[in-house]
Amino acid sequence: MNNPINLLEYEALAPEHLSKMALDYYASGAWDEVTLRDNRAAFERLKLRPHMLVDVSRRDLSAKILGKSVRMPILIAPMAFQCLAHPDGEVAAASAAADAGAVMVLSTLATKSLEEVAAVRKQTPQWFQLYVHRDRALTRALVQRAEAAGYAALCLTVDAPVLGRRERDARNEFALPPGMELANLAGLEIPEIAGESGLFAYFAEQLDPGLTWRDLEWLCSLTQLKVVVKGILRGDDAFKAVEHGASAVIVSNHGGRQLDGAIAAIDALSDVVAAVGDRAEVLVDGGIRRGTDVLKALALGAKAVLVGRPALWGLAVAGEAGVRHVLELLRDELDVAMALSGCAKVEDINGSLVRRL
């Protein structure tokens, strides 16, 4: 399997290229990992109902997300510490995304600075994912840096008032190796807490568990950038997010890494789409491994999807080329799935294509 032909084969190869600590950090979910598994299983419960005798001789996968044209409705989700997978880390992933015409969402907890990543943007938009720190001046400074570097949107993660308990990380006492740092937070001291991971210590000391909807309004007041709220699983919360200034919401359970037992993201999507209506865009992440998964998400009302772990597996196996190949594979699978479903363009995809069994 030296030449992977799908995302699952990249996942199977990744352990050969990662330390146990890095592999467990990337792959793990919270507690018993029920939600982690259900994110994938939920897609398999959705069945497709294709149209026939539709002219699909030419297909168009382009989309417009937050007013920006992209070549496909697929983004790379924000993920921390990508230099654990490859020395070029987030820079390699962003360059691959730009080549593929996919939006890259950079994590606050990146191991390459937001300025370094912005330098490889080309013509494809990038978003910056934000955690609100107890130190609001630090948060404000990150927003200003993202604006200055040309990011197109801020992506506020709201499902992590505290860190979910990931037992693989606790067992490994997860910490960044010597010489690797939080590039966007240079100089920030992460305390050591006996028996806990360095990541847990960071969340406990730096992130604000008292965040409310008023803080979303405050964030929107700081910037001209559009603000996306990530981590929504309920229609009423999605409605509040839009009321308080969000231009889009991302239906997400943090890849099963926060509250174990939470609903699968794709199962929460329809409720959120109904609540938001045409007031904001809705995206979804969690469990996407095939082009048919992208098709199902779009059919249920998502404007686009975000892909997380598969990009990390591609990065670990083959660096920038691996991430690019992962995105190409997913795009090509979506192209075939659209053709076989009678959809010549993304706008043709609608709820009549799916049925939940």
Which key terms come to mind for this protein?
alpha/beta, 13 helices, single chain, TIM Barrel, eight-stranded parallel barrel, 357 residues, two-stranded antiparallel ribbon
Rg of Cα set:
19 Å
The CATH topology comes to TIM Barrel
How many domain regions? 1
Major beta sheet, specifics? 8 strands, parallel, barrel
| Envelope shape | globular
Q: Architecture in CATH? A: Alpha-Beta Barrel
By secondary-structure content and strand pairing, the structural class works out as alpha/beta
Read across the widest sheet, the strand sequence of neighbours is: 4-5-6-7-8-9-10-11
What would your notes on this structure say?
The chain has 357 residues and is an alpha/beta fold. It has one domain: Aldolase class I (TIM Barrel), CATH 3.20.20.70. The protein has helices spanning 7-13, 20-27, 34-45, 89-100, 114-118, 136-149, 167-172, 198-206, 213-222, 235-243, 265-276, 291-299, 309-341; strands at residues 46-48, 63-65, 68-70, 74-76, 103-106, 126-130, 153-157, 226-232, 248-251, 281-285, 304-307, 354-356. Strand 5 (103-106), helix 5 and strand 6 form a beta-alpha-beta unit. Helix 4 (89-100) packs parallel to helix 13. It is globular, with a radius of gyration of 19 Å. The model has no long low-confidence stretch (mean pLDDT 95).
